[in-house]
Amino acid sequence: MVKDIAPTTDDPTLPSFTLRVWILGTLFCVIFSYINKILAFRTNAFAISPFVGTLLAYPLGQFMAKVIPSIKFNVPFIGEVDTNPGPFNVKEHVLIYIFSSTGSSAIYALYNVIVQEVFYELYLGTFWDLAFLFCSGAMGFGLSGILRKFLIRPSHMIWPTVLPSVAMFSALHHVETKSNEDDGKKHWSQLRMFGFGAIVMGIWTFIGPGFMSNMLNYLPLMCWIAPKSNTLL
After folding, report:
1. FRET partner for 24 with CA separation of 20 to 30 A, picked from 12, 119, 120, 186?
2. Cα(153)–Cα(149) distance, integer angstroms
3. What tens digit of pLDDT does each residue of 3-23 get?
4. In whole angstroms, what is the distance from residue 233 CA to residue 223 CA?
5. pLDDT of 144-157, one tens digit each?
6. Between the CA of residue 190 and those of 58, 172, 208, what are the distances in Å?
7. Is the whole-model pTM more than 0.90?
8. In the 8-state DSSP scheme, what is residue 107?
């Protein structure tokens, strides 16, 4: 199944860390981290999924690829930077997704800082709070980089939760995979299948049971039936 969804080849000519990646990735990272952290303190907490940024990044990346002129300039310690290196590609899209997913998921050390200040009145100061958050986040990325030879590079190390994202990127950017090879039969394209699934899930979430079932959780039915009963309440 993984071979049917994930591409097995790489195109080294595709640019990756482009100006579009830094602009869109930083934008989604900052916005999602700010919004999700504020919403986390609500009584009924909810969060914005990084898939929102992934879906928004596709039309924005295509738009930037069409309207931004190609201007090359040199940046110290980085080298030559092209404002528009070509069409918006799958590598850029994946990097923007990593930016947005990193911002949408909170740094767990932040809860330590909040609990210390609110419940124990222990104030480290702004500098040490930021240093503590940075060190805890950098530790996670550092461990993943150290262990990538064992946990990331081997093809048999499968992380099932990322397979839907891989399928979405392959569909949006027409990446050649085993599932879309020509076998002489007429099939739906991956992009059409993705669009059909998005419409169905939108109906399910915003109109169907995905909305109604969550709404029923907040209806105080027992209070409406017997508002003064100590037995039921």
Report:
1. 12
2. 5
3. 667 777 778 888 888 889 999
4. 7
5. 889 888 887 777 77
6. 16, 8, 25
7. no
8. P
